[in-house]
Specification:
Elements (H helix, E strand, L loop, with lengths): L6 E6 L6 H16 L4 E6 L10 H5 L2 E6 L1 H13 L6 E5 L5 H5 L10 H11 L1 E10 L2 E3 L2 E4 L1 H7 L3 H7 L5 H8 L4 E7 L2 E7 L1 E5 L20 E6 L4 H17 L9 E5 L1 E6 L4 H4 L10 E4 L2 E5 L2 E14 L1 H19 L1
Parallel strand pairs: 1-2, 1-3, 3-4
Antiparallel strand pairs: 5-6, 5-16, 7-10, 7-14, 8-9, 8-13, 10-11, 11-12, 13-16, 14-15
Helix pairs in contact: 1-5, 6-8
Amino acid sequence: MTRAWKQAILIFHPGSGRADRLSQAVRELTDSLCQNNWRLNLRTLTLEPRHLLDDEFLSADLIIAAGGDGTVRTVLEAVAQARLQTPVAIIPIGTGNLLARSLGLVSPNERHRVRHAVDTILNGSPICIDLGKANGHYFTVDAGIGPFAEAIAAPSPTEKRRWKLLSYIKPLWKAARTAPIRLRITSDGETFERRARGLLITNAIDMGIGQGVDVHQICDGTLDLCILNPRTYGEMIEIALRFAKWFFFGRASTHLPYEILHVRSAKIEVLEDSTCQQNQSSLPANKTPLMLDGDIEGLTPVLVEVIPHAVNVIIPKAVFERTICHCSQADQLAAS
C-alpha cells in the first residue's frame, strides 16, 4: 500500500556523488510518485542547514536526501533543528555512505543501489534514530579530531568522485606518519588522558565499519568514543584491511584494533604539549580541527553529546522488523 504523502522534496548537492545516479533516482522517483498522486520537487543544497528552513521544507510530507554523508548530515541537521517529525529518506550516491550502510540502505550490488533506495522510499518503514552534536553542530556518523580525522576531510569533492576510496590513501598515509596528539577526555564524571592519532566519536556502531547492519546501535542513546593510536605500520594496515573487507566485501569482524568507550557526552581537549600541534604554525598549540561527517567544522576543545531519537529515517522493512525484534528482546532481558 502506498503512503498518503502529498508532497516530497528531494535535496541534493550538485558536487556530491555521480550525476548519472542522481538522474536515475529522479526519473524513478518521479515515475513512482506521480502514479500515486505525489508531487516531487527538486532542490539544490545550500551551505548551511538553516537555509533549508523555508515553508516548502517545513510543510513537506517527505524529505529525501540524495548524496553522501555530508549531504545527509546537512539535511538531517535541518530536520533536527526544526524538530520536525517528517520522515527522511536517503538515496546514497556519495563515496562512503556510512550512515546509509549502517541503516541497510546500500545494496551490495552497486548497479541496484538507486533501485534499492527507491524501493525503500516506497515500501520501507520510518524509525527514530539518534544524532550526535558537537559544539552546536549535528553529525550523523562521526565527529573526530587528530591526524586521522583530518585525513578523512582532506580529499576534495572532485578527488572523491574521481578516485572514490583511493582518494583517502595519501592523507591517511600521511596521518600514519604524524606523531600522536595528547588528549584530555572528560566523560561521565571521569577525566583521563590518551595519546592518539585519531579520536572519533561515532553514532553508528564501530565508526559504521567492520560490522553488519545494526540499527539498534543508532537508537540506543549513546555514542562510541573510538581512540585510534596504531604504533606500527602493521597495526595501521590491520585497521585499513578491516575497513576494506567490510566496505568492499561486506565481511563483518568483531575484533576491534582500537579502544572504544560508550558515552552520552564528553569533553575533549588537546593538551599544549602535543607534538604534532607544535609543528603546526597556523594554529595555537591546544587547537586542532574538528571533523564532522567528513567536513571540517571548527576547532577544539569540543563538547559532544548524543541527541536521542532526533529524526525519523525510512529504512527497509526487513531491517525495521529485525530492529524492533532486537529492541523487544533487549527490553525483556533488562526487565528479567
